[in-house]
Amino acid sequence: MIKGLFVKKKKYATIPTGKVKQDVPEGIMSKCPECKHIMVTKELRKNLLVCQGCQYHYPMSSQERIASLIDEGTFTEYDADMISGNPLEFPDYVEKLEGDRKKTKINEAVVTGAGQIDGLDVTLAVMDSRFRMGSMGSVVGEKITRAIEHAIEKETPFIIFTASGGARMQEGVLSLMQMAKTSVALKRLSDRGLLFISIMTHPTTGGVSASFASVGDYNFAEPKALIGFAGRRIIEQTIRQELPDDFQTAEFLLKHGQLDKVIHRSEMKKTLSTLLKIHTEGRV
Amino acid sequence: MAAELEFERPIHELEKKIAELKSFMDEKDIDLTDEIKRLEEKLSNLENSTYSEMKPWDRVQIARHAERPTTLDYINFLFTDFIELHGDRLFGDDEAIVGGVAFYKDLPITIIGHQRGKDTKENLRRNFGMPHPEGYRKALRLMKQAEKFNRPIICFIDTKGAYPGKAAEERGQSEAIARNLVEMAGLTVPVICVVIGEGGSGGALALGVGNHVHMLENSTYSVISPEGAAAILWKDASMAKKAAESMKITAPDLKELGIIDEIIEEVKGGAHKDAKHQAELIDQVLETSLDSLLSMSQEELINQRYEKYKKIGQFGFVNDSIVVK
What we know:
Number of helices of chain A: 11
Strand content of chain A: 15-25%
Largest sheet of chain A: 8 strands, mixed
Radius of gyration of chain A: 19 Å
Helix content of chain A: 25-40%
Shape of chain A: globular
Oligomer: heterodimer
Order of helices and strands of chain A: HHEEHHEEHEEHEHEHEEHHEH
């Protein structure tokens, strides 16, 4: 009873960021945050950052993701130097951006560019959850839109790997409008008969889930990725009941008909490559 | 009687005082005409200054006013022969969104809008105007129908947001919203969106990809509610007033950010003071807006929508201190 007085109760909904914050350890050995299995870090990297014990998929940086998919030496990055302003003059926003730029060595929460997968041309966008939780502000929206325009111009498929907490609060309604901006571009891509593949990785929520992530010609996800529109705690508070453990996981979405397939990271390049071939044959 | 809003309290107090003086004058047969006249002048000045310098939080209060006119109110005033159409043909009929066909001055038209309830009972039925996926899918079905028969579409936006519930997630809330954004982008008919109350995040935007987007003077449009923003930014929902100011959610803010086209003037003190007159003010903007879009070809309409959204956002480049649009 008395103890209860001193426990600080959580008053507000929190976005589950726990897993994302666990950057892959730099040491010689790494312990899996899920099953506590200990692996040699070098081996873990060779295994595409998937735990050999429980198949837990560690978050991947955009650089690592691109290296795991794109044929060596074929990647050309677009708009690498585009950076956010501070349109709403939000306190501390500029400092936070600067901090993330230093930490991640990238300028914003998405990396876009052109490259090849098993010799086939693609336009690629990879979101990076280490940068402002992968949130979408003006730059993320603009870079993705420009990448889609490149795909239209060069008539390549467009592939996106999403990882995002949603719209970026500090840019307010401008962030919201990036959902519309990327959508008008995707419509144009679709009308030209071009292929769009969306792969949702942990986490894909809010405004990103409710825009480009969900409207691929193919919607895929990595195992156990958290995918959803509203936050778990907000839903629990609203409906006043506990949600199942697998709520909003990739497997939950698959069961409810929201995904084409859940793809293990070790199968990712092969699956994409096969799909690209199916579409290439189809276009001849 | 309209509920009293905090910032209007001085006005109400003065009104009360004038009424008291009047009854006192009648009772005691004392001439207080000069005094009353002076106070009435003061009241008029106070009203003008209060309503012309409304703070963002004042506007939030008006946008959320229980008696603020809803989509069905405006449909009643603005259109004739309205036939409401129900259901998404997939799961059910979501009453948080209403839609149908009607005439707008002899022009066949499709109307879709979020619908709040006016009392608790209606609010329960309409889920407080917070749609499930089937609501967005009904909206899309009606938009596609409008496109097939070449009717312009008018969307009224008035929601706190898409409903955050278990069933909504299971049925694909994200996909339903996302699909509308993409499909609205490609509609071959004019689409006009009017924010009439609260424009809450993705749940509002799912009816909001239009050729023209207008906002009533005291409506709001935001990525998150002021309470939500305050909880995240300052871990304190009571800072909502401050959040409302810094998040730039009012019609003048959005006009300045280049997101909306016209601010629709409101009746003094807010739309709830005179719904019919408010409908007339909407009508004027709607007519001009529609006129300019009706002369555009299908391709022009799609391209105009593309360019409109493409230019929203602010960013710069490394080694380039100027933030370009």
